[in-house]
């Protein structure tokens, strides 16, 4: 029986979080929190400020979910309570889905309640995520209809950490439940499945666990890149997937690598992963990062936040290129820093937040030579040819256009300065940059290459 002692429950959660978070993040966000009480199946947790509550709910839902699952508290709800104000419960996924299920399938409750903001309508689509989003929408829109030549079962979404894979996956599940609340949908993270399986093996009774997952209509299997070190877990996952696929049930899988690069996975499992559609998510470009920030500020949690000036959003978008999580985290940190010192968000506050987080000078420029030399290296042309050779050949023209685009994107150099570096008129530079932007919109592979180069330079 689960403890009703709030301190004991919070200690279990804290222990799980301490294993996942960097020490500095744990001290900053988790250590100041205190348990208050347990009421109606929820643990009330006191947080020191509205900004801290915002950070925890926006930035740490997956970490909290893992800590709950690994502590055997997956069904425990959390309510974050700001000092002296009424607690606002983090709403769970629709309970009617659970009520409508039949049989012993406890997992049909669907999603961790901390994932309440992961819906398809909140996902901002950019050039690097068009295919994955279109596939996610198609899975929802075509569910239950006659099979088409293009199979999206399983749908395998891969990409770096924090780019929105789990967001899309859970969004699919919620979209399917909206269409049919009777569906049995389960979200399953591989590491948590491993822990559950370990308990079942100790009890010498794994069959009920396997059947529990085989009875679902939709399986959302998160983070399969960790399977390589789990022999028995691979075997159980294979049997679950095989059963669901044979019975026409929908499967969505996420990973940080494509199926063919999953080290240590059995070939038969990789084959199942590749049966349907594989779609990747790439880091968002600058325009998409701005759109993500503005979409984020429309969330109900941000309505009390003072207006964020455009120059602050631009600064955040330039500095946080690695992932959507980094981007949203930096935005939240700027808001937190401003509230801490009691001033509106400003570029000065954003600079201080950046320096406090990264230890770098926020205005430290990237030297144009570094941009040009790395571009030349990427395209395998000499630096001298890139800068000075007069040629209309694509082998020189395209790298030069990309170098101009990056000089503008990374260093914010004036068109005239870029033109002088290449001994060209500023109007030629403007046309070259427009050409690169147009091609990035039309050519996903080109977009990936330019974005990867941009991230490696800055």
TrEMBL record:
Residues 339-458 are annotated as: Domain IV, binds dsDNA. ATP binds at residues 162, 164-166. GO terms for biological process: DNA replication initiation; regulation of DNA replication. It is found in: Cytoplasm. Keywords: ATP-binding, Cytoplasm, DNA replication, DNA-binding, Lipid-binding, Nucleotide-binding. Residues 367-436 form the Chromosomal replication initiator DnaA C-terminal domain. HAMAP family: DnaA_bact (MF_00377). Belongs to the DnaA family. Plays an essential role in the initiation and regulation of chromosomal replication. ATP-DnaA binds to the origin of replication (oriC) to initiate formation of the DNA replication initiation complex once per cell cycle. Binds the DnaA box (a 9 base pair repeat at the origin) and separates the double-stranded (ds)DNA. Forms a right-handed helical filament on oriC DNA; dsDNA binds to the exterior of the filament while single-stranded (ss)DNA is stabiized in the filament's interior. This is Chromosomal replication initiator protein DnaA. It comes from Candidatus Geothrix odensensis.
